[in-house]
Amino acid sequence: MDMIDCKEKELELIHTEENMNHYWTHRSESYSDINNEQLHSVKKSAWEQALFADIDESRPLDILDIGTGPGLFAIISALRGHHVTAVDMNAEMLCKASENAEQAKVKVKFQQVGHVLPFEPESFDLIISRDVTWTLTEPEETLMSWGRLLKKNGIIKYFDAEWYYYLKNKENMRHWLTSRETILKQGGSFYVKSNEMEELAKELPMTYKDRPQWDIKFWQDNGFTCDVRESMNPVVYSEKEQIQYQNYSVFLVTVKRGK
What is the full DSSP assignment across 152-218? Predict the structure, then answer.
């Protein structure tokens, strides 16, 4: 790839990220409401169990929450007594997160970041994230940068799903269109501007990966230990949310760095 092609690619990535940021600005209030509902429901303990069941909490941990959104994971972690840094590209999301943390009476260091995370290597014991990896414009480079931020024996835990699986092929699209009508009949709903993110998803490389198989191979090929827990919907979602997200099988990827 010559210099002109690289520059064009860079501009395309910037444009996509700017459009995503614009979308999440409009989505911040409704998404905060969804997260707060989870924070104050019986499912809070389910998220905690999934995040911390196999984590040594004998001392306060240095935790980084990437793409914190309205701050659900950051607040859960801070309530357990850990030192939490939570980052997001979207200023409005961070405002909601700060308000939510204040209401929960916990201290979290919220920070707006760009494409590159401004932290020293080996800064964190635990990195957590939710519904972020599918949005990455340069997934291989970005995920490796996460790995470099881990201390020795550090762990990454992130949740995600194939949120736009139906863009992969015509068969998936037919399935989605039929299922969409079913979801609406069962009382589900769709965000009014969801078509905007769908258009952006068409430009994102992770949309077309077979996940979490891709994640497993990526981390193992790069020298990390990787385990995946699939079909998490009944664990972390309420009955109402399971209707809403019935087409998306949420998975949890756990990545461990050796000594």
Answer: EEEEEEEEE--TTGGGS-HHHHHHHHHHHHHHHHTT----TTHHHHHHHHTT-GGGGS-TTHHHHHH
CA 25 to chain centre: 16
Backbone torsions φ then ψ of 139, nearest 5 degrees: -60, -45
Task: Tell me the per-residue pLDDT of 107-143, one tens digit each, with 9 for 90 and over.
Answer: 999 999 988 899 999 999 999 999 999 999 999 999 9
What is the residue type of 29? E
* pLDDT higher than 80, residue 2: no
User: CA-CA distances (angstroms) from residue 214 to 65, 202, 203, 217?
Assistant: 22, 18, 18, 5
How distant, in Å, are the alpha carbons of 26, 149, 192 from that of 221? 38, 18, 40
pTM: 0.91
* Section 221-250 average pLDDT: 94
Residue 7, pLDDT score: 55
Q: Which residues pair with 150 in a beta bridge?
A: 124
- Phi, psi torsion values for 145, nearest 5 degrees: -65, -35
